[in-house]
Amino acid sequence: MPGLPENLRRLLSPRHIAFIGGSDADFSARQCAAQFDGPVWGVNPRRKTLGGVPCYPKVEDLPQVPDAVFLATPRAAATEIVEQLSRIGAGGVACFTAGYGELGKAGQRAEAELVAAAGDMALVGPNCYGLVNYTNGALLWPFGAGNHRCHRGVALIMQSGMLPANMIMNDRSVPITHVISAGNQALLAIEDYIDVLVDDPAVVAIGLYIEGIRSIKKFADAAIKAITTGKPIVVLKAGKSSLGEQISITHTGSLAGTDQAFQALFDQLGMIRVGSPVEMMETLKFLSISGAPKGNKLAAFTCSGGDAALVADYCDRVGLALVQPSNTAKSALVELLPDIATASNPLDYTTPLWGNTEVMPEVFHTMVGDGYDVAVVIQDFPPAHIHADNSYYRNDAKSFIKACQPLGVPAAVCSDLPENIDRESREIMIAGGVTPLQGLDAGLDAISYACRFGLMRDQVLSDVRTSDFGVIEVPGREVATQVVDEWQGKQRLREWGIEVPTGQIIDIDAVDGIIEDLQYPLVVKAVSAELPHKSESGAVKINLQDAAQLRNAIEEVQNSVSKTVPGIVLKQVMVESMIEDVIAELMIGINTDQQFGQLLVIASGGVLVELISDIKTLLLPTSDTQILNALQGLRCFKLLQGFRGKPAVDIDMLVTSIRALVDFAAAQNRSLVEMDINPLMVTRDQCIAVDVMIREVDDPI
To answer: Is the domain of 608 the same as that of 568?
Structure first.
C-alpha cells in the first residue's frame, strides 16, 4: 500500500477523480469533467448522474479506485465514507465538509475520528475549498476556477478558503499551476504540501498564506528543500501578537514577540514575506516569469520626468540601488539619446524616442548591459475606449524584450496604475520573458522582494546549519520564575568567558573601610533581584570620580530605591569600573517561546532600545554567519565600522562574544526563561556585559 506522501502525490496529480455529495459535488464534477484529462465519476445513491458524469450508489461500485476524491456530504456521513475510501486504497480526499475542529471540543472529536478513518490516505481539510491542478485540469473546487491550463508557474497553498478563490480570479496574468485550500489541516499541513510540490517540475515558485505553523522543524525542512531546488517561497502571514501569554520583564520580551519570531524564521529560511495579496501576486509573477536577480542594481527607464522622480523616491524606500551608468555607457547613450535627454538612472529617454523600434533596442541594451542585475520600463497602456490601437504603445515593450533576452537580465514592464496593462499586452511581454507588473508601488515592491530573495538564497545555501534546523527545548509557560540578581548573573557569564566590568560587592555598612582604596572612575548599582531595570528606579550612578562622589551616590541610590520599591532594605551595592572609549552600545537578549524555542535578539542598546527599534531576531540554534548578517542589518552597524573618525570594532570579536552568550543560553535551556544584556558595551577590542538581567525557573535543577 502506498504511504501518505505517495498518496498526496496521487491526490495532487490524479489519473481519475470521484465527486461525492449533492449540489456542491454536482457543480464541482461538472466543472472538472469539462477540463480534466481522465475519467470523472459521481457517488450518490439517489442520482444516476452527477454533474453530467456517471454516478454510482457507493464508493465500492466505482469502476476504479480513484486517486482523488472531492467530498461534500453532511458531517454525519463523512467519516464512514472516508473509511471506505481508505479501505479500497484511494489516494486522497479534499474534504469540503465542515463542522469539525472549528466548532470546539465536539468538532475536534469528530475531526480526530475523520483522521483515524483516513489512515495513510491523504486528507486535505476538512472545512476547506479543496484543490486545483491547472496542469491537467483536475478541479476539485466548489466555485468557478476558470477554463485555462498552466504548465509552468506558481503553486498557492493557503490556510484560507476565500483568499485562494479570490486569487484565482486575478486579472494580473499570474501563471498558477496549483491551488490548495488547507482548511483545518487535520492531517496534512502546509509543510506537507510544500514538500511534494517542490518535486513537481511545473512549479517554479510557491505562495503561502499562513496563520500558524504546526511543526517548525518540518516546515523548515520543506522550505530548505524548496530553496535548495531554486524554488522561492513567498509568504503572507496574518496575525501580529505578543509572545505567548507570559508577562515579560525584559526589553527582549517586548522586542521579540511572536511576529518577530515568524519573521526570523522566514529570514533564516530565505523566504520572502510580503504585506498584502497584491504584493504576493506581483512578486510571484515576477519570480515565475523573470526569475530572481543576483543583486539589487536596477536599471530603470521612463518616458516621463515625473515617473523618473517617483521611481527614484520609491527605489530609495525599498532598497533598490539606482547605480549610475559607467562613463563608457554614458558616452554611448549620449550618441543615441535626443539632446533633451540625460544619460542617467532612472533614464527618461523622452518622447522623441517613444515607440522608436530602431533606436530604443540599442538604448535598452546599452544601459541594461552595463552591469545591472535587473531592469524595468515604466509604461502604461490605454484601454480601447481611450485609444483603440495599442500597437504603438507596445513598441517600447517589444524593444525592451529584444534588448534584454540576449543579456539574460531579469526584466519587467511596470505600469503606474494596476489596471493600465491590458491582457494582450501582458501576454506579449510574458511570451518574451519580461514580466508585466501592475502598479508602480506593488511592481517595485515585487522587484525589491525578488532581489532580496536572490541575496538571501546565497546566504542560506552557504550556511551549513541549513541541513540541521532545530528548535531548542525551553521551560513551560506555567513554571514559577525568579530573577537572578545582577552580581550573580555576571559571575555566571564570567564563567563562560563573557567579559563583565571589574567590580565587587560592598556591604553599605562597611563602605568607609575600603572606599579610599578604590580605583576611580566608578559606577555604583543597587544589588537586588527586585530591581531588574535599575535606571528607572534611580539605582545606578555613573562616572564617580572620587570617594566623596561615591558616598553621595550610595546615599542617593538608597533613597531612590526606598521610594521606588517600598519595603526594600538595601544592604549591598555593586561597585564597578567605568567603561570608557565605548564605540557602540548593543542589547543582546534571549527570549523563549513554546513553539520557536530560544530567540536571540540583537539591537541598538541603551535606555532608548525600544524607542529606536533597531532590532534583528534570530531563532536558535544559529550560525556565526547569521549573527554577522543580523549585525550588518542594524542601522547602528555604521558605528561598529567606524563613524566620524572613531575606530572600527573588531567584528569577529563581537560575533565571538555573542556566540558565547548564545552558548550560555543553550546550556541553560531547561532553566533560562529570558536574559538581557543591555548594554553590551563595545570598544575597539572588548565586548563588556555592563548590565545583566536573567530570569529563570524558580529552584532550577
So the answer is: no
* Chain Cα centroid distance, residue 220: 12
pLDDT digits (tens, 9 = 90+) for 381-401: 988 788 767 777 899 999 999
Count of residues in the chain: 701
- Same domain? For 567 and 506 the reply is yes
One domain, residues 138 and 183:
no
- Over the stretch 205-237, which tens digit does the pLDDT of each residue have? 999 999 889 899 999 999 999 999 999 999 999
pLDDT of 324 reads: 97
Q: What is the 3-state secondary structure (H, E, C) of 622-663?
A: CCHHHHHHHHHCCCCHHHHCCCCCCCCCCHHHHHHHHHHHHH
Average model confidence (pLDDT) for the chain?
A: 90
Of residues 103 and 700, more confidently modeled: 103
Q: How far, in Å, CA of 197 to CA of 448, rounded?
A: 25
Do residues 300 and 220 share a domain? no
Confidence of residue 137 (pLDDT cuts 50, 70, 90): very high
- What would the mean pLDDT of 280-299 be, rounded to a whole number? 97
Q: Which of 577, 603, 628 is the last residue of a domain?
A: 577
Q: Hunting for cell 496604475 — which residue is that? A: 417
Q: Same domain, yes or no, for 163 and 198? A: yes
Say how far apart CA 15 and CA 13 lie, in whole Å: 7
Last residue of a domain, one of 142, 160, 186: 142
- Please name the amino acid found at residue 244: G
d(CA 181, CA 142): 11
In sequence order, what are the residues at sequence separation of 6 or more whose Cβ sits closer than 8 angstroms to the Cβ of residue 502? 576, 577
User: Residues near 596 by Cβ (< 8 Å), separated by ≥ 6?
Assistant: 216, 261, 264, 265, 471, 619
Q: Tell me: the pLDDT tens digits for 622-634? A: 999 999 999 999 9
**Structurally, how many domains does the chain consist of?**
5
Three cell numbers, residue 215: 511543526
- Report residue 253's pLDDT band, with 50, 70 and 90 as the boundaries: very low
The structure's pTM equals: 0.90
pLDDT tier for residue 533 given thresholds of 50, 70 and 90: low
**333: domain CATH number?**
3.40.50.261
Domain assignment present for 335: yes
Same-domain status, 32 and 126 = yes
Closest CA to 439 of 128, 171, 140, 69: 171
Q: Which residues pair with 435 in a beta bridge?
A: 412
Q: Which domain holds residue 310?
A: 291-438
